[in-house]
Amino acid sequence: MLTPFTPVRFRHFYLGGLTVIALIALLSYGLLSLYIRQQLQFSVITPFTLQLLRQDVAWLERLELALLLLMLLTLALELFFVFRPMERRIQTHEQALRADMARQHSLTAALAHSEEKLRLITDHVHDLILQTDAQHVIAFASPSARALLGYEPAALRGRSLTDLLHPDDLAAFAGALDVAAQSRANHFRAEVRLRHADGQDVWLETTGRLIYDEPGNFSSVYLGRDTSVRRQMETLLREQSTLRVALEKEQELGDLKSRMMERITHEFRTPLTVVQIAIETLLHYSDRLSAERKQDKEILIKKHIQRIVDMLDEINLVVRNDFLQSSSRLHPTRFVLADLCREIATALEAQFDLPGKYHLALPPALMLRADRGILSYALLHILRNAARFSPPDAPVVVTAAPDAGGLRVTITNQGTGILPAEQARVFEPFFRGSNIGEISGLGLGLTIARAAVVAHGGHITLASVPGATTRFDIWLPGAEDA
Predict the structure, then answer these.
(1) What does the pLDDT look like over 84-128, one tens digit per residue?
(2) What is the pLDDT of residue 442?
(3) Own/partner pairs for 138-143, CB < 8 Å, 24+ apart?
(4) How confident is the model at residue 1, as a pLDDT?
(5) Which of the following CATH numbers is that of domain 126-226: 3.30.420.40, 3.40.718.10, 3.40.120.10, 3.30.450.20?
(6) Of the CATH numbers 1.10.1740, 1.10.287, 1.10.3430, 1.10.150, which one belongs to the domain with range 232-320?
(7) How many angstroms separate the CA atoms of 309 and 132, rounded?
(8) Helix (H) or strand (E) run with residue 481 in it
């Protein structure tokens, strides 16, 4: 298989041919010179011979000149073929060098432009920018350090960042930095205090980023935003919120006082008026009244005085909050719940003259461990309200059953009901529903009932449809079997 005839092979072939020709010419020159020496040594020099010698010498000189030219040509060609590619390579390297220099110049210009932009940013940004090494020594501080910390940037260089940190923030700062370094997250956040040149503390919301130069060797860049104003605003907002809550409580207390005085004035006026009239009648017309009429007046006076006493007791319970101060004031005993409900129902049926008003469906053997006297407050007021705010012929149903480790008592009646918008307030002191008309009452019954239930560790809920059904659910702990 023939080898391709490349320009390199042609150069080698051509230079080789010239070299062979030069060697042949050199050999011929040497042989001719030897011949001439022999002729000069063994022949008689005649004019003719001298002429021939002169011709031979001339021919040798021409041959020598031709040989010299051939050698020069060969050398020139060799230099051409050797140095021409070298020149091209030099030109190529020179072009590459120029390109590298141009690229380096462009990168230098871009770097200078980037540094200028960075300088403009750091000179005009309001946030604090710091760069530290792995030992937290500050290597760079932005000009904003003057406004935020009161230091010249040059004065911060070489100082440790931990010297500026508040002692209480050192642990949190070091912890955030360690977490970022161990998790390789490279960035972290921390809100710390730096000491101002005047000794005051400046709150900064700091975002940090770790920059790794070598494995295990890093520097840190921090961007800190002054949050002192924000924290002052937060403090003011908290204070404002506290004042608003206090004002609302004061308003609620004022409303409670107004409702209390309104209800007390309204509820006390009637029995006091009745008592006053009965007393004046006895004083002025005693001689005209029979013994039976006098006794009726006395009974009427006692009844209304007792009503006033009962209302004062209710007010006293709410104001003093006796059985809500501590569960240790309770005196629990073991009793049958059905018996307590039957006693209260019998008394209320006699008071309202409504026999058979209460339908009790309670297990006769269901025992309860509680303070019988205090629990009777809850049942009394709920059962009383159920009778007062329902038609005379509408029954009040009372049921009870074990539930969730305790006891659930349910009291249901048909009647006025409670408006949805007012159901959340019916347990407030002196609150009365807007749909109950002129039915008497202080508005303390449900307040006392809930307080009595809560004192036992229970809770009370209601569900009501105005003009239809109202149901109270009382859950109490301490249910026992007989």
Answers:
(1) 676 777 778 788 888 888 888 888 877 777 766 666 666 656 788
(2) 64
(3) 139/219
(4) 47
(5) 3.30.450.20
(6) 1.10.287
(7) 80
(8) strand 479-481
- Phi and psi at residue 478, to the nearest 5°: 95, 20
Q: What is the DSSP letter of 209?
A: E
366-370 β-sheet, strand order: 333-336, 366-370, 479-481
d(CA 414, CA 325): 35
Cα gap 404→201, rounded to integer Å? 56
Sequence-ordered list of residues with C-beta below 8 angstroms from that of 353, at least 6 positions apart, any chain: none
User: pLDDT averaged over the chain?
Assistant: 78
**Closest to 266 (Cα-Cα) out of 447, 432, 385, 417:** 432
The count of other CB atoms within 10 Å of the CB of residue 376 is 16
Closest by Cα among 481, 310, 302, 301 to 407: 481
Angle at 117 between CA 114 and CA 123, to 5 degrees: 135
- Segments in 150-218 forming alpha helices (H): 153-156, 161-164, 170-183
Q: Any idea which architecture 325-481 has in CATH? A: 2-Layer Sandwich (3.30)
Give me the residue spans of the domains in the chain.
7-115, 126-226, 232-320, 325-481
| Cα dihedral 103/105/110/115 (nearest 10) | 140
- Chain centre to alpha carbon of residue 401: 46
Q: Are domains 126-226 and 232-320 of this chain identical in fold? A: no
Task: Assess contact for 329 and 322: CB atoms under 8 A.
Answer: yes
Beta-strand runs (E) in 244-340:
333-336
Based on its alpha-carbon atoms, the radius of gyration of the chain, rounded to whole angstroms, reads 59
Residues 123/144, Cβ–Cβ less than 8 Å: no
Distance CA 384, CA 307 (A): 14
